[in-house]
Design a protein that fits this description.
This protein is α+β, with helices and mostly antiparallel strands. The protein has two domains: about 25-65 and about 145-310 and about 355-465, Outer membrane efflux proteins (OEP) (Up-down Bundle); about 85-125, no CATH class. Helix content is about 65%, strand content about 15%. The strands form three sheets. It has a four-stranded antiparallel sheet with strand order 2-5-7-8. Helix 6 packs antiparallel against helix 9 (about 285-305), helix 7 packs parallel to helix 12 (about 430-465) and helix 9 (about 285-305) packs antiparallel against helix 11. The longest helix is centred in the C-terminal third of the chain and has 67 residues, at about 360-425.
């Protein structure tokens, strides 16, 4: 009994362990818009660009802080093991000559002896053994070219970071849309292919009965078998392609590979033709042009920064310092061993560049060249955008025309197959005609789905060209 309970417990445990990954799996029902939103939120490149934007915001605040008062405090304590001395010349009088002079004693010439002065050097120290210094310094920058232009560039730098994110988002939107519709169309194609396999399998089964009854030859069954094997091989390849497409889409949207995606959009000819070729190009709607505008503004500010380099740097400063000195001899006349005093200093500093070896001149020349390059890039982009718009419009027209033709061919191939099938069922046709019409139907289906995908890609490219990729 115990062995049985242990066995059942082990089975239950193994079942739980096996089911844990299954239970952890998630299923996502997503449309193309959902896929775009998830990709924009989860793409690592975009996450890093947003972090760069946040970093630039912090950098802007750092530059702003440079124009706020800079206050520093300082303190120092020191003890002289040996005091530094200064030598002072001094004179002194000999005491004996002073006494003789007072008494009026005369020398051999009858003159009163005068006091005699003696020259000597005396050591004196202005420093006390112990000293303490403490102070506060405040510096207020009034004008500095680099900081001034940095303040001017703050909003432009944030705008540049934002435009850079938008360019990357547009690339992501374009890629995700194409990946989404590629999987969606492949799924639709596989559904049609599955029905084709069912149709050929039914024909194969019918032929088996006819062969047993002696109405057809073994050759007819062999032809159908070859056709069925080819279709199954195509089905396997298409299934693998769909699986790979799902894996790529999961990676783009930030979904775990073990989770499940289910695409909810339904793609039709009418959806592709909706709002077709109604809008003209607007350069300002293109994120690339907006990024170039921001780059041009930064170039102008950079040029201004070097031009302002000829201006002086002006700063206001204030210093307060308190100093204390310790000497036991102070007690005799101050009542304390410590002597304290303080100082205050206020001023204005101006640094004027006079000659820097023409460095600023050449820096200005470089900034002008960089600015002109940005303007050239803007003009080049306008030309490229015109070409892209013109080409995408033509490609979209051609894709729509081809899609309509392939749809008509598909409808015609279906009619031919149905007619051939009826003739075969009535005993008028043969297996070769059925397989041939079925192969033509498969080719028509493949051509239609290919034209459908090309039309979707052409429409996405056209929307990108006119700056309407986001809808």
């Amino acid at each position: 009994m115990k062995k049985r309970k242990y066995f059942l417990s082990s089975i239950a445990f193994l079942i739980c362990i096996y089911c844990l990954p299954v239970m952890a799996q998630k299923k996502y029902l997503i449309s193309a818009k959902d896929a775009i939103k998830m990709s924009v939120e989860n793409t690592v490149e975009l996450k890093n660009l947003r972090l760069d934007s946040a970093r630039q915001k912090a950098k802007n605040r750092e530059i702003t802080g440079m124009y706020l008062p800079q206050i520093t405090g300082s303190a120092q304590g020191a003890h002289y093991l040996t005091l530094p001395y200064v030598l002072f010349p001094s004179t002194g009088q000999t005491e004996i000559y002073n006494v003789l002079s007072k008494e009026g004693v005369k020398d051999g010439n009858g003159n009163v002896i005068q006091p005699q002065q003696q020259f000597f050097v005396q050591e004196f120290s202005f420093v006390q053994p112990w000293s303490i210094n403490a102070g506060i310094n405040m510096n207020q920058l009034l004008f500095q070219p680099e900081v001034f232009t940095g303040l001017m560039a703050r909003n432009t730098l944030m705008d540049f970071a934002s435009r850079n994110i938008k360019v990357a988002e547009d690339k992501t939107i374009e890629q995700v849309q194409k990946a989404y519709y590629q999987v969606l169309i492949a799924k639709q194609q596989k559904e049609v292919l599955d029905k084709t396999i069912q149709r050929i399998e039914k024909l194969y089964n019918d032929q088996q009965q006819l062969y047993k009854n002696g109405f057809i030859e073994k050759l007819d069954i062999d032809k159908t078998t070859v056709s069925l094997n080819n279709i199954r091989a195509t089905q396997t390849q298409l299934s693998n392609l769909i699986e790979l497409g799902y894996a790529s889409l999961k990676f783009s949207t930030g979904v775990m590979q073990e989770d499940t995606l289910e695409l909810t959009d339904i793609l039709t000819d009418e959806l592709i033709k909706e709002n077709l070729l109604e809008e003209e190009i607007n350069y300002e709607n293109r994120s690339e042009m907006q990024l170039l505008h921001s780059a041009e503004k930064l170039g102008k500010i950079d040029l201004k920064r070097y031009r302002l380099g000829f201006f002086p740097t002006v700063a206001f400063f204030y210093q307060y310092q308190q100093q204390g000195q310790l000497n036991k001899n102070f007690s005799a006349f101050r009542g304390s061993d410590w002597f304290w005093f303080n100082s205050n200093l206020i001023g204005l500093s101006i640094n004027l560049p006079i000659f820097d070896g023409l460095q600023k001149k050449y820096q200005i020349d470089q900034a002008k060249i960089a600015l002109q390059k940005t303007r050239n890039s803007k003009e080049q982009f306008r030309q490229a955008a015109d070409l892209e718009h013109h080409a995408s419009r033509i490609n979209l027209k051609n894709a729509i025309i081809n899609m309509d033709i392939q749809k008509k061919n598909l409808q015609l191939a279906e009619q031919v197959y149905q007619t051939t099938k009826k003739k075969y069922e009535q005993g008028v046709g043969n297996t070769f005609e059925v397989l041939q019409s079925d192969a033509e139907l498969q080719r028509a289906q493949g051509s239609y789905f290919e034209s459908l995908f090309n039309a979707v890609i052409a429409k996405i490219n056209f929307q990108k060209a006119i700056g309407k990729l986001r809808g």
